[in-house]
């Protein structure tokens, strides 16, 4: 968006704290049958807090939109670049012959901010953790990248990113062991019978993909980080396709999954070429919680040592 939030340098900035808290409130409501009732939800302190957070976030995004709109109007910066940022694309877009409103643009920006940052950042953290505690896998990944004639300054395109099978396996294993969304809400579009129980149409249910990911019935030695397990086309073909669904499935699957994978691959390649990743402390175990997405409450203490 041509805006630097400096969230890593300023983790306690109001915007970072507001978005983090907002995700927590969303999760609380999703997981509570009582809060699903609108009239009950509106009587809670969380609802009042949510209103204040939404107001702050909307005002913050609106200020960014207006600032960029004014810059484009006054031509303070060339706006005809071949590579436009998301905000510029939205500001130049039209719907039914009319420019998008601030509300339209804000909705798209919020989608990218919430869905794009939280998920990709969390997955990248878990990938680095798994590579740190599995140095053999990290070395094998580094060898694959170097053997593909990719250096830190190599321009990366789709063809290069898709030519690294071990990297694919690393990402798939990370999403299997640490799925960012281990529980996904779905709505029955018709009556569904499971055993002796009938779930009526329109019923909301939670599908726990994360349980299947560590079930020995589907994955041999499920607690072992093994990127090469994804090379076995026969066993993967025989496995029920709905067992492994880190991006969900169906009409409401992740609309940005291809972009997310390209983003992850690019970041991992750059980081592994530049650094040897190790644990900063011994005996660490992530204390996992699900607050919208899965994350460790105790962080991940990693050390990045520059490679020669």
From TrEMBL:
Cell compartments where the protein resides: Endoplasmic reticulum membrane; Microsome membrane
SUPFAM superfamilies according to UniProt: Cytochrome P450 (SSF48264)
Cofactor(s) listed: heme
Membrane topology label: Peripheral membrane protein
Keywords carried by this UniProt record: Heme, Iron, Metal-binding, Monooxygenase, Oxidoreductase
Annotated GO MF terms: heme binding; iron ion binding; monooxygenase activity; oxidoreductase activity, acting on paired donors, with incorporation or reduction of molecular oxygen
Keyword Metal-binding: yes
Origin: domain of life: Eukaryota
Principal subcellular localization: endoplasmic reticulum
Stated role: May be involved in the metabolism of insect hormones and in the breakdown of synthetic insecticides.
Family membership noted in the UniProt record: Belongs to the cytochrome P450 family.
Name of this protein: CSON009393 protein
The species this protein was found in: Culicoides sonorensis (Biting midge)
